[in-house]
């Protein structure tokens, strides 16, 4: 028998892991009423990304600010000039949602 809801919980270690410190800082900056929504969106966006490209998802989870293989400004300009469609569009929507949740 399954339940209609599922509880998912885990702990972050901000003192030990830089990416988890970044996540905690972002969540702390949100009003309490928005934290749960942001955590759920981040979790679901991460799972969607893992389904598409597991290696990239795990790499992004480390917040590799120093080693980004692309320029985020040029990506925005390219995206706005050439709106993608289909599966490619979904990737950009997921990426945009993640960037919205975790701005630089």
From TrEMBL:
Specify the domain of life of the species encoding this protein. Answer: Bacteria
InterPro entries according to UniProt = Plasmid_stability_protein_StbB (IPR019720), StbB_sf (IPR038307)
By what name is this protein known?
Plasmid partitioning/stability family protein
Source organism of the structure: Escherichia coli O157
């Amino acid at each position: 028998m399954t339940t209609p809801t599922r509880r998912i919980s885990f702990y972050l270690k901000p003192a030990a892991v830089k990416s988890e410190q970044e996540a905690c800082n972002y969540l702390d900056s949100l009003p309490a009423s928005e934290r749960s929504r942001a955590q759920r969106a981040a979790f679901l966006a991460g799972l969607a990304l893992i389904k598409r490209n597991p290696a990239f998802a795990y790499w992004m989870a480390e917040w590799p600010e120093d080693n980004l293989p692309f320029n985020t400004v040029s990506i925005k300009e390219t995206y706005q000039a050439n709106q993608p469609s289909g599966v490619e569009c979904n990737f950009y929507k997921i990426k945009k949602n993640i960037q919205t949740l975790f701005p630089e």
